[in-house]
């Protein structure tokens, strides 16, 4: 697509403001964005953002002529990470994915650049970009490129010390190769890259599945321990010793009795022990 047929507007997105440079009128205008609309790069209300932009166009008497827009995200409105080029490919990809995962937005639009022997990863709030895409399209402003300002600084000395929007407008077509969206594509809402977002969603799904399985396991253990308690150990039977009753001795068993023959014997042995005869010796 030839973007030279329509005038260029450069939209520089900062943390709490946006700068507009209109190539056809050579105007630079500033739009202040309330924190009630965008806070910490998070879009709080698309409707309020649309109202702010509409009011901005009306107050500056901006005619709704067809324009091609290049959006430049400042370093304070994007998340960035630099990686050493010497890192092994697998480790570099792991670090890139870790960085994308910690970006605090539900939808993330990201791209990896190789610049001056280092790898730079840039991520922006995809929901914020899509909201601007929709709002500007209603005003005949068509976004064809989204470029991180830090990447332009790496490659252009003219931008090292100042935000030169006039220079960016003059190089807009060549800067398109560094766009976060597909090169040479006039994007429409919902057509941006979804690779990083899908990967991030997949990881979130895996984490939720892991948490669910853990809770399910805990529930199963609780059910088993509550309704199927382990059997109590049986008490071992205590065997008491058998007590044999002792016969109480009678009086006859304790005290001996005298027999008529003069022998003394106990009643117990009288019938079993033979009596000893008394023998008289003859006299001399």
How do the strands line up in the largest sheet? 3-2-1-6-10
What overall geometry do the principal axes of the alpha carbons give? elongated
Q: N- to C-terminal separation?
A: 172 Å
SS elements, strand count: 12
Judged by helices, strands and strand pairing, the structural class is alpha+beta
Bin the strand percentage: 15-25%
Overall mean pLDDT stands at 79
Main β sheet profile:
5 strands, mixed
Assign the CATH class of the domain at 3-193: Alpha Beta
| Low-confidence spans | 184-199, 258-276
SSE succession: EEEEEHEEHEEHEHHHHHEE
Written account of the structure:
- The protein is α+β, with helices and mostly antiparallel strands and 284 residues long.
- It has a domain at 3-193: Nucleotidyltransferase, domain 5 (2-Layer Sandwich).
- Helix content is 33%, strand content 22%.
- It has eight helices and twelve strands.
- The chain has a five-stranded mixed beta sheet with strand order 3-2-1-6-10. The chain has a three-stranded antiparallel beta sheet with strand order 7-9-8, with helices on both faces.
- Strand 11 (257-258) and strand 12 (264-265) form a beta hairpin.
- Helix 1 packs across helix 3 (126-137).
- The radius of gyration is 51 Å and the shape is elongated.
Present the secondary structure layout.
Layout: E1 8-13, E2 17-22, E3 27-32, E4 38-39, E5 42-43, H1 46-59, E6 67-73, E7 79-84, H2 89-102, E8 108-115, E9 118-125, H3 126-137, E10 141-148, H4 149-155, H5 165-170, H6 172-175, H7 195-227, H8 251-254, E11 257-258, E12 264-265
């Amino acid at each position: 697509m030839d973007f030279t047929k329509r005038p260029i507007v450069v939209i520089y997105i900062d943390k709490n403001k946006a700068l507009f440079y209109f190539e056809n009128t050579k105007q630079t205008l500033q739009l202040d964005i309330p924190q009630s609309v965008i806070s910490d790069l998070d879009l709080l209300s698309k409707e309020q953002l649309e109202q702010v932009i509409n009011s901005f166009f009306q107050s500056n008497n901006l005619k709704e002529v067809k324009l091609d827009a290049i959006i430049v995200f400042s370093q304070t409105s994007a998340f960035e990470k630099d990686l050493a080029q010497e890192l092994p490919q697998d480790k570099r990809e792991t670090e890139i994915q870790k960085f994308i995962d910690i970006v605090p937005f539900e939808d993330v639009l990201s791209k990896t650049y190789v610049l001056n022997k280092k790898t730079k990863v840039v991520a922006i709030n995809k929901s914020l970009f899509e909201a601007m895409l929709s709002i500007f399209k209603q005003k005949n402003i068509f976004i064809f490129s989204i470029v991180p300002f830090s990447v332009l600084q790496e490659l252009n000395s003219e931008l090292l010390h100042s935000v030169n929007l006039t220079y960016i407008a003059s190089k807009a077509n060549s800067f398109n190769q560094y766009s976060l969206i597909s090169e040479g594509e006039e994007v429409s809402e919902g057509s941006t890259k979804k690779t990083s977002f899908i990967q991030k969603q997949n990881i979130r799904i895996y984490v939720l599945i892991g948490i669910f399985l853990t809770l399910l396991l805990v529930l199963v253990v609780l059910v088993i321990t509550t309704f199927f308690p382990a059997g109590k150990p049986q008490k071992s039977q205590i065997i008491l010793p058998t007590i044999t009753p002792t016969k109480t001795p009678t009086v006859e068993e304790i005290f001996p009795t005298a027999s008529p023959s003069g022998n003394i014997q106990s009643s117990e042995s009288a019938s079993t022990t033979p009596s000893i005869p008394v023998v008289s010796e003859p006299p001399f």
